[in-house]
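Q: What would this chain look like folded?
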Amino acid sequence: MEFDLAFIWAALIAFAVLAYVILDGFDLGVGMLFLFFKREQDRDLMMNTVTPVWDGNETWLVLGGGGLFAVFPLAYATIMPALYAPLIAMLLGLVFRGVAFEFRWRTRRAKFLWDWAFAGGSFIATFAQGIALGALVQGIEVINRAYAGGWWDWLTPFSLLTGAALVIGYTLLGATWLNMKTDGYVQQRARGYARVTGAATLGLIGAVSLWTPFLNDVFLTRWFAWPTAVFSAIVPVLVLLCAWALFQGLNNQKDYVPFLASLGIFVLCYVGILISFFPYMVPPSVTIWDAAAPDASLGFLLVGTAVLLPLIVAYTGYAYWVFRGKTDPTEGYH
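A: My prediction, written as structure tokens:
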């Protein structure tokens, strides 16, 4: 039996990116909600809900980016110059946010600066991710296996829309996470924010979904031609079911259901993107097989990944298991 190594690696990187989005998404969302809570004890509690897991969540970003560099060098070489500005902004945002986790607990006079670094870094990283996604969806110009576009091609009305959509979507994840991990005042406020951001997320998903098919003839055909049109009909129905579960869970004061429903919405949107993209690694011209490294390299790296990936999944699951349940406001991790 002969394995399609390029396809296997594309699936692994897609999994790593999805894991990053649904895991780091909620703690970026908590950061963006941070300044909406004025009391210091509430902010301490919010940060403590994500302190045990935030750095582990970012492992998936390293895995996805490193995997792209190693196994799809052509995709890496074309995506990076096309998206230098938003990707550098994302990394700087993540750096400031990461440093804030440590420095905020070590100072009193400058604590407000690290509060802003935590919230601002979360917003910048999220908005930059959304812009990068929008730029990738709308297409990257490639000529002779090299990026042929301009410095500002990533900045378009569509990429700004996807940036705003991701900001609101991550904030929804953060609000439902706080609903699950806290009690009392923070939980009640989080439920209110979840209702607002939930409605806004659905509206922005609709706007992006209506716009996307008209960016590229491939997307238009994929969404409305048989048999892929079946998925175009199923995914929105499942999104609406998740939305119903989200608002029912919030109205019935459930802890876990709203968060799981929010994750379901993100997973389904991600599936919709994959349906649109396949078989392209860099739309509209570079396929998975065009971008892949030689099979010998893919096979060698796959052996190491077969050992490493289960370990990452195991310690991630163990961390969430150890720190399950409500976060005690009288205790902390610093």
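The CA atoms of residues 68 and 76 lie 6 Å apart.
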